[in-house]
Design brief:
CATH class of the largest domain: Mainly Alpha
CATH topology of the largest domain: Transferase(Phosphotransferase), domain 1
Number of helices: 11
CATH superfamily of the largest domain: Transferase(Phosphotransferase) domain 1
Helix content: 25-40%
Order of helices and strands: EEEHEEEHHEEEEHHHHHHHHEEEE
Number of strands: 14
Number of domains: 4
Strand content: 25-35%
Structural class: alpha+beta
């Protein structure tokens, strides 16, 4: 049994078919595209991506095949899991285009961030995230669909966001960032489209329609059409939609971490301040309450054996030394000899795995970088009040970079960047856990 579900796209016809009693989706490349190699390549690529990725938020691929009719016509076909639900465009329409709540937005952002984390970790990026390409299963799980425009990434993309490489432009009006329109899509292009998707969900209006111009550098008035949304979340979405890729989150790990921080801050804001509780107790108990309060404060002020001493606390000077050491090690790791053995002396966690992979991939591709005139200024140091083994440092970095491939200089770059470093103390020594570019001026 086969039934046509959609013929509205310019790329493929969508059918529902059955494998025994299980419904499946059959995509068939439109006949007029059969002789266009790029269209066939993108179609086959979707099958490859779906078979490679395994996540409840990604349709399961069941393979690509060709079918030839009796009269000799050849059709390109792709079979995949049928998602039991509607896309978010249809879902919003069913809800009368009523905007989603803050709680729903954070939950969905986390789901899509986790899906993108898998996609990007497998060296792919989607390039066409939008409301109609996100489906909602009946169990509440979001599913990212339409991987026909996905592109394989290289670590040089992750290192310097597409320097010297051009890819096929894929454009969805209102969702696509400028660099992608110009044929220079990077993984951070997905973050821009994700932000625009949530502008749609939080306002009930697709980007580019009615009350703002999607071609503006900043969607300056979209926030006024939201209700009950914290500035923390609104700022986060604006950051996803930053005009320059380098001003967006560095990677999916940073994106998810910021979401977690926002969620924690919002939960803390709901709690009754401790000072109010103490004040109320003191008023109720009179002098005795005050005596108890004072003595409990004196006890808590006495440092325990596990409390860090003043000398162990992070300062601007120690942060400066730490980051300058990182820059020196980075120069060696990304340089012509790709010396990665010292990365683990300064990096941990996601930062270590990411930069090790960047260096190794550049070595495989016979690429390297040279850094000049590096000037670092630590602007702020903030230790976590709850866990003093964690800290954040913001610094301004000025540097010139030359990019080489096959020993030939390809490009030079001068930049001044504001960078945030998330630090963690391991065995008494500060290490860099991850980092993100807050602002980048070239």
């Amino acid at each position: 049994m086969i039934s046509l579900l959609s013929d509205s796209t310019g790329f493929a016809k969508i059918y529902e078919v059955y494998e025994q009693n299980t419904p499946k989706i059959l995509k068939v490349l439109k006949e007029h595209l059969n002789n266009q190699p790029k269209a066939v390549e993108l179609f086959r690529q979707e099958a490859a991506v779906l078979e490679q990725l395994n996540h409840p938020g990604i349709p399961k691929g069941n393979g690509y095949f060709q079918y030839q009719t009796i009269n000799g016509k050849l059709f390109h076909c792709l079979v995949m899991e049928k998602i039991d639900g509607v896309n978010l465009d249809q879902w919003l329409t069913q809800q009368g285009n009523h905007p989603i709540s803050q709680k729903q937005a954070i939950a969905w952002l986390k789901q899509l961030g986790e899906i993108l984390h898998l996609v990007h970790s497998q060296q792919w990026f989607h390039r066409d995230i939008k409301s109609s390409n996100v489906m909602l299963r009946s169990n509440g799980q979001l599913v990212l669909i339409d991987f026909g425009t996905a592109r394989e990434a290289t670590y040089s993309y992750l290192a310097k966001m597409g320097v010297g490489y051009q890819v096929t432009a894929v454009v969805s009006f209102g969702y696509t960032p400028l660099e992608q329109k110009n044929g220079h899509a990077v993984p951070q292009s997905d973050f821009f489209a994700l932000g625009r998707t949530f502008v749609h969900l939080l306002t009930g209006t697709p980007p580019g329609n009615n009350f703002w111009n999607a071609h503006d550098k900043v969607l300056s008035n979209w926030r006024t059409y939201t209700s009950g949304i914290s500035p923390l979340l609104l700022d986060f979405i604006d950051n996803l939609m930053a005009q320059e890729p380098g001003k967006r989150p560095l990677n999916t790990q940073v994106l998810l971490q910021r979401l977690e921080e926002i969620e924690q801050k919002l939960q803390q804001n709901k709690k009754i301040p401790l000072a109010l509780v103490i004040s109320a107790a003191m008023l109720a108990l009179g002098g005795f309450g005050y005596w108890v309060y004072q003595h409990s404060h004196l006890d808590s002020a006495i440092p325990s054996d596990n409390s860090p001493t003043r000398e162990e606390l992070l300062t601007k000077n120690t942060a400066q030394d730490l980051i300058e050491s990182w820059l020196s090690i980075q120069t060696a790791a990304l340089g012509p000899n790709h010396e990665t053995m010292n990365l683990e002396k300064i990096l941990v966690g996601s930062a270590l795995s990411q930069w090790r992979q960047i260096a190794e991939q550049d070595k495989v591709n016979n690429r390297y970088q040279k850094f000049f005139n590096q000037d670092l200024t630590v602007e702020s140091v903030q230790t976590n009040n709850i866990d003093q083994n964690q800290a954040q440092v913001e610094a301004t970095l000025k540097e010139a970079t030359e990019f080489y491939e096959n020993s030939q200089k390809k490009k030079s770059d001068n930049q001044t960047a504001r960078v945030k470093y998330n630090l963690v103390r391991v065995d008494g020594v500060w290490r860099i856990q991850n980092m993100s570019v807050l602002q980048n001026n070239r």
